[in-house]
Write a structure and sequence with these properties.
alpha/beta; eight-stranded parallel barrel; disordered N terminus; about 15% strand
């Protein structure tokens, strides 16, 4: 094996060759990459080497590393011995190492580190002699005994901590620095006794220590805390952790030494000011362990001015190189500064956006590069009410969590518990903030859901009615909270594990980002969408070829919110959502029960006409896609327990409750999702399709007549749930005839389009036939757009009910059967193939057909990347997810352009190399000819 710059071991610092090309972060990890770069740009790093991430997988399978790797470790140790003029294991001038983890993505505190490797009963004496500092040597030794015992052998840290506290107490020492040499020697003996009591042995052979530490660091990749961290932060597709073995430099040798951790900018606010802490006469773990109180990094210039000046210079170099805010660790040994690691620092949403904008203004990165520095989750943090970072750390929060469900819709809410939609609306009218608690929600609950500050349900998944509606409105929602029992009769919530009971009127808090329910009142911060976020999203919109982002909006206020968030139109208006206002629902119900009553149908037409006009006004000049009525009619009806004489009389049954209940029962469907809904409803009751089209076209005409100079309307009428060509043609012709009638009556050239939502797999399979349909009377196309309803398409393709999936999908994710929840991130192999196949068929017969997505997946960054790869025209999502989708769409175009440039450059280099090879061969042939002659 070639040890240097091999796929197994990457050396850095000292005599190690400086890389001409930065190695892959996936291979050497973030920490390893930082060490390579610092070596390259002239920042002093203690020499060492990185064992790459593929070895983590080897260790996981074999519980060891190949002999050739251990040989490479020894060869690299020998190189460092020469560089540092020390010897590993020497009793005269010992070389010591640290062993640290380092995955491609930062996982702070989740994996293991061991310092001072190489110390034993002999080398500690050698370290004391070489440094002339007995206290430092024994302090370093006790640290190794502690860390090795805990990290490598699994001895509880508390066992060492108890001995440490006892020795400090006996010595009357307040802090660790107050312990003398003899105290530390005693402490080392006490620590060795811990090993004996635990039946463990501390190895005296330095190489045995080093090998054990390497194995422990690789093994820490699969510890429960590391696995849980990756799960929580959705970190996937990493090879493993790298292991970095680095020469120890010491910050605990005296008052001209120190150690610290710092960010080049404030990670909470983004302000350009050095943010961090340091300790004099300490090692790295002391800063974060709380053994002593660290000092602000700015004060370091007073006690170590030369090292501080060099530190500022190094950090600026790193910011310029990486074009990003840096998180660094350093040690000062006898006045000399050593940089131990650097990485792009983690930050809040507010900070991420400010830093991205500032880096562009400072000339450190381009606008396109800045877009990539902000994660979608950063934008989400700014779009919803949240609990402050301090509040999340408070006892009131951490000790107040009493139940946990699914994070249905992000944001924070505090309010009084209510159990019915009417209670929510009544309390909202009084000015109260409320949390609506339901076993599960249904469409008729929307009035109360709108009135509530937040929603909590005991059943339902991430794409249940509660979650979908809440996300659309930007309301916090915790759904599928199986930790609780909801009694809507008794108006109580009972926590199963503790039997704690909450009653109507009790105040609780919910965290829709984590799914946590908190028994206490937690302070809420409101979002601010102005300023830097708008600038950043405008940059994303400017990227060449960027996919458009539209919004799902069902009312004028929704549309106004969507426009203010940058939506370029409405990709989905769900007309059924217009029916649930208290004054409208009885009218709709009367028509459902008595379809012969045209007065009620006319009444419905008038309020829909008004609503459609509001949409056209809010979106003046942009597309407004309106889906005709989709849900089964019985969803609008009252539940049997809600029926009494007054309701029966209001809905046209006199006081005959029995007759009304019989009618409700007759409309019951065993599987309503596949029953009388969507286009089937329009075919069975064509007057309903005609009514909706008349309302749409009349609303457009009203706006055009009121504002003849400025009004620009473009309705797109979408037919839902088609599965056959005949179904589509039936509805499309009804729509066209009615639309043309209104155009003629009003004498206006109202532009409009007809298309369909592809949500039934059969429709995806015959998309070419649907796209090629024409009107037999004038020969013009009947279909100009497809919009993929990926919610229902996922249900029907995968055979999974989204409302019932919470019972098994979490387990599927845990077992790796699903990589992602298919109702949150598109299933590319199955559902995604349906979309791809349909889009290809549609384009094959109509190259100009518009293709889009209007399901929940339209706001998911990973899904957006897939849709972009298919060449779709736009995605449509809830108004509150529009900023996230805009950022994701812009980032995708930047990444694709960068990938194309990298491929072109690689191709160029291959071409140059090939020409050089050919030239070399030509010289060889020429020389051969000369020799032959």
């Amino acid at each position: 094996m070639t040890i240097y710059n091999s796929k197994y071991i990457y050396p850095f610092g000292g005599s190690a060759p400086k890389p001409t090309v930065d190695p892959s972060k996936q291979i050497v990890g973030g920490k390893g990459l930082g060490l390579q770069v610092m070596s390259k740009i002239g920042v002093d790093v203690p020499p060492g080497f990185t064992l790459t991430t593929p070895l983590c997988q080897v260790y996981a399978k074999e519980n060891d590393l190949p002999a050739e790797v251990w040989k490479g470790v020894r060869e690299n140790v020998r190189r460092i011995e020469i560089d540092m003029e020390k010897e590993f294991g020497s009793s005269e001038n010992p070389l010591l190492f640290s062993c640290r983890s380092g995955a491609a993505m930062s996982m702070p505190g989740m994996m293991d580190t061991v310092l001072n490797i190489g110390l034993n009963d002999m080398t500690v004496e050698g370290l004391a002699k070489a440094t002339g500092n007995d206290r430092f040597a024994w302090d370093s030794y006790r640290r190794l005994l502690d860390m090795f015992g805990e990290v490598v052998l699994g001895i509880p840290h508390e066992d060492f901590e108890k001995r440490f506290d006892k020795v400090k107490e006996d010595a009357n020492a307040k802090n660790d620095v107050d312990l003398g040499v003899e105290d530390l020697k005693k402490l080392c003996d006490e620590y060795k006794q811990v090993y004996v009591e635990q039946g463990k042995e501390f190895p005296m052979d330095p190489y045995e220590q080093l090998y054990a530490c390497v194995k422990a660091v690789f093994g820490s990749w699969m510890t429960p805390r590391a696995v849980k961290y990756r799960e929580i932060n959705n970190i996937k597709n990493l090879i493993g952790t790298a292991t970095n073995i680095q020469t120890m430099v010491f910050g605990n040798m005296g008052n001209d030494c120190g150690t610290g951790v710092a960010f080049s900018r404030n990670p909470s606010t983004g302000e350009k000011v050095m943010y961090g802490e340091y300790l004099i006469n300490a090692q790295g773990e002391d800063v974060v362990a709380g053994i002593r109180t660290p000092q602000p990094i700015s004060q370091m210039k007073e006690v170590l001015p030369e090292a501080y000046a060099k530190f500022l210079e190094n950090v600026e170099k790193l910011e310029v190189y990486f074009k990003d805010m840096q998180d660094v660790e350093f040690t000062v040994e006898k006045g000399k500064l050593w940089m131990l690691q650097c990485r792009n620092g983690k930050r809040t949403g507010v900070a991420a956006i400010k830093i991205a904008i500032d880096l562009v203004n400072e000339g450190k990165c381009t606008k396109s590069e800045a877009i990539l520095k902000v994660e979608p989750r950063h934008v989400e943090q700014l779009l919803h009410p949240t609990f402050s970072p301090d509040a999340l750390k408070s006892d009131a929060y951490t000790k107040g969590v009493c139940a946990k469900g699914l994070p249905g819709s992000p944001g924070a809410a505090v309010g009084k518990l209510v159990f019915t939609p009417k209670q929510a609306e009544d309390e909202k009218a009084k000015g109260s903030s409320v949390i609506l608690v339901r076993e599960t929600t249904s469409p008729e609950d929307v009035g109360g859901m709108w009135a509530a500050a937040g929603i909590l349900t005991a059943r339902g998944g991430m794409t249940s009615h509660a979650a979908v509606v809440a996300r659309g409105w930007g309301k916090p929602c915790v759904c599928g909270c199986s930790d609780i029992v909801v009694s809507e009769v008794d108006e109580t919530v009972t926590v199963k594990e503790t039997n704690e009971v909450f009653k109507a009127g009790d105040v609780i808090s919910i965290n829709g980002a984590t799914g946590e329910v908190i028994r206490n009142v937690i302070e809420v911060k409101t979002p601010d969408l102005r300023g830097d976020l708008g600038v950043l999203l405008a940059w994303a919109d400017e990227e060449e070829g960027v996919m458009k982002v539209l919004a799902n909006a069902d009312s004028g206020p929704d549309a106004t919110q969507a426009a203010s968030n940058g939506a370029q139109g409405i990709g989905l208006c769900r007309t059924e959502h217009m029916f649930f206002a208290p004054e409208r629902l009885p009218v709709v119900r009367r028509w459902i029960f008595h379809t012969e009553c045209l007065d009620d149908l006319d009444h419905i037409k008038h309020f829909q006409r008004s609503d459609f006009k509001d949409l056209f006004v809010a979106m003046n000049g942009m597309h407004v896609t309106i889906r005709l009525l989709d849900p089964p009619l019985h969803e609008f009806l009252p539940r049997p327990e809600q029926v009494h004489e007054k309701v029966a009389e209001e809905l046209g049954f006199g006081k005959d409750v029995k007759s009304m209940l019989a009618r409700i029962d007759s409309m019951h469907e065993e599987n309503p999702m596949l029953g009388l809904r969507g286009c089937r409803l329009g075919i069975v009751k064509p007057e309903f399709t005609q009514m909706q089209v008349e309302a749409i076209m009349s609303a457009a005409a009203d706006f055009m007549e009121e504002c003849p100079e400025t009004a620009k309307v473009h309705p797109r009428i979408m037919i839902p749930l088609i599965g056959s060509i005949s179904e589509y043609k039936n509805q499309a012709l009804i729509i066209k005839r009615e639309a043309e009638r209104i155009r003629a009556e009003r004498g206006l050239d109202i532009p409009y389009e007809i298309g369909t939502m592809i949500e039934v797999p059969r429709a995806a399979l015959v998309s070419d036939k649907i796209a090629s349909l024409v009107d037999d009377e004038d020969g013009k196309p009947l279909c100009t757009f497809f919009s993929y309803g990926t919610n229902d398409l996922t249900q029907m393709t995968m055979g999974i009910s989204r409302d019932d999936s919470n019972g098994f999908i979490p387990r599927y994710l845990e077992l790796g059967i699903f990589e992602d929840d298919p109702f949150q991130t598109i299933d590319e192999e199955g559902v995604g193939y349906m979309v791809k196949h349909s889009a290809s068929l549609g384009k094959s017969v109509n190259p100009n057909i518009s293709l889009s997505v209007c399901g929940e997946h339209g706001g998911d960054p990973k899904s957006i990347e897939f849709f972009d790869s298919l060449g779709l025209n736009y995605v449509s999502c809830s108004p509150y997810r529009v900023p996230v989708a805009r950022l994701a769409a812009g980032q995708i175009r930047v990444k694709r352009r960068m990938e194309a440039a990298a491929k072109a450059e690689a191709s160029h280099h291959r071409g140059v190399a090939e020409k050089a090879r050919e030239a070399g061969l030509a010289v060889v042939h020429k020389v051969a000819e000369m020799i032959h002659q």
